[in-house]
Amino acid sequence: MIKTNPKTIALSLAASMALAGGGVAVAGAADSSDTGTRASSEQERQARMDTRAEALADALGVSASELEVAKSEVREQAERRRADREEATANAKGMTVQELRSRRGDRVADRLARAVANKRLTQTEADAVVAGVRDGDSAKAQVKKLRREVRADRREDRRENRSDRGVAGL
User: Of 21, 36, 67, 87, whose CB has the highest number of CB atoms within 10 Å?
Assistant: First the structure.
């Protein structure tokens, strides 16, 4: 059992809630420079996250760096617990962790084959999800990551199309 400072847990929980949008409300976002150029959506998102993190740190009476340290500690503890559970499951089934991951990957590949057949995914996307599962990630996390990438690609395509048509600022 890992002992954790209760303040660390409270800080990380509050940080997670705030950064997920459920905690501290922050009015406005960080301004981009006055160069007249619009910041990319990724830069704007990062600025909003930084602003929320600073507001949360102020509300908790700690520095932003202490808040980051607390969040990283909680992430590391969660990863260790996940690895321990995975090892215990593999041992209970009489196999190695890698064999367990491989079997999970096979089951996910079977499910994703149906999605590919129904044209909901490409084979390349399905293969990326299966590879992630075999590396130890959850299928859900891999699909979320894939969807984020697809949305980002679509946004970029729309931006390029707008600029090709001469539509500015949309």
Answer: 67
